[in-house]
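Sample intake — Protein ApaG
Collected from: Pontixanthobacter aquaemixtae
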Amino acid sequence: MKELFQHAVVTDDITVRVAVNFLPEQSQPEAGKWFWVYHIRIENGSDQTVQLQSRHWRITDARGMVNHVDGEGVVGEQPILAPGQTHDYVSGCPLTTPSGTMEGFYTFTNRQNEAMEVRIPFFPLTAPATAD
């Protein structure tokens, strides 16, 4: 089955695509726990080799509570992307509300060690409505 990327943004010829899915089997709404998995594809459309150094996420729940998450690399990796290469990874996000949003940026460096921020598109986290 081919993954459907619902959200994308391009920064300096680097495209970040996101596909997000709610995981009911990992969620416990009765306990105030909802869980999503997201698949990210980073495409280097530039003419230079770049390395992903760090990430910054802004995660907002349905109550408007904002959580900033910073860290090195993505899922333990700091991939190097030559022109035309892509990097895919999958991660997850738990919330204590049935909806929220995520957005952020990656910091990349090029061979000259110049840093650049590459946007991660804004995307919603929405659990399907459940009958009461």
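Post-analysis note: Residues 8 and 17 are 4 Å apart (CA to CA).
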